[in-house]
Amino acid sequence: MIIRALPRTFLLNLSALGVMGFTLLACMAVAMAADDSAPGEAAAKASDCFSCHSTDQKLVGPAFTAVAQKFAGQPGAASTLEGAIKNGHVGTWGQIPMPAHPQLSDAQLQQIVAWILSLKAPKSAATAAPGQTYTTTVNGKPVTTSFPIFQPGTQKVTQPVFRGYELFDSYCFRCHGSDAVGGEYAPNLRASLNNGMTESQFLSIAMEGRKAQGMPAWAGFFSPQDIDAIYQYTKARAIGAVDTGTPPQ
Ligand code: HEC
Ligand code: HEC
Q1: Given its phi and psi angles, is residue 209 left (phi above 0), alpha (psi -120 to 50 degrees) or beta?
Q2: C or N terminus of the chain, fewer CB within 10 Å?
Q3: Could you give the CA distance from residue 119 to residue 99 in angstroms, rounded to a whole number?
């Protein structure tokens, strides 16, 4: 569509703006030609991919930069990945399955995979620290989490933990109980986490839901950051670092 629309705009601009318009359009055309991975990114954004993936951080699924790195230079990488997205996949990155995407056309799959494979490894150390941990003292004992619960040197919770509290008590409390105390209709999520449920299992169930059991899917409604904030709040409650009620902020 963009390509077909271009010549007419081109002529209009030439007559209206003369050389200046021409230079501007020439620059735009070069910029557009250089970025031929853009349709793939747009198609991924229009689908559900970013509910579970981020470009450079592991969420429920692997970071797209990590996929690019793993498959770099492998013959047949593109068709392997197109098949994995279309038919669903499990086992390469862990035990959580990726759902199938039968609604995507072959052309869309090709564009998305071309974009993923074009990605470079993350530049900054900040995004490449999945193993980082934080220690909080609860009742005199150190507890380790994958995220900070309190702002450094204070008793005030971080912004994501507070946001997680707000979201939990707006959306999850109906079934899982206010302040994650447990409810009549759904499991006590503090107990789930204390009995070994991992962060990625929590995120995955929250995204995908268990519709047959009455647990709604939240993918598409919440961003991965929102779900992660809810996880952080629930985890902070589970280990006893945060009490019932509004956390100090
Ligand atoms: C409900 C969560 C979820 C959604 C939605 C999702 N993925 Fe995934 N994806 C995963 C998980 C989990 C894995 C790891 C599967 C494995 O270990 O093989 C994965 C793996 C992948 C891989 C690597 C496959 C391989 O063979 O190593 C690619 C590429 C990928 N996803 C792309 C996408 C794209 C593109 C979309 C959107 C059209 C998408 N994903 C939507 C969860 C998801
Ligand atoms: C309409 C009721 C309802 C709402 C609202 C709801 N859930 Fe659930 N949830 C359930 C039910 C029922 C189950 C148990 C499913 C099963 O039996 O496997 C469940 C299970 C879960 C589990 C798995 C627990 C375990 O031990 O297996 C997680 C994690 C979870 N919910 C997260 C959330 C989050 C996060 C929210 C808010 C964004 C939320 N739920 C909102 C009904 C709900």
Answers
A1: left
A2: N
A3: 23
Which residue, among 247, 235, 38, has the nearest Cα to 163 in the 3D structure?
Answer: 247
Torsion sign, CA atoms 16, 20, 22, 25: negative
**CA neighbor of 99 nearest in space, from 28, 204, 15:** 204
Nearest-10 Cα torsion for 209, 215, 219, 223: -120
- What pLDDT does 194 receive? 95
Pocket test of ligand 1: the residue of 98, 111, 207 to mutate, having most ligand atoms within 8 Å of its CB, is 98
Q: What is the pLDDT of residue 190?
A: 97
Could you list the mean pLDDT of each consecutive 10-residue stretch along the chain, which spans 249 residues?
A: 41 39 39 60 93 87 92 92 96 89 96 92 49 87 93 92 97 96 93 93 90 90 90 97 95
**What is the whole-number distance in angstroms between the Cα of residue 65 and the centre of ligand 1?**
12
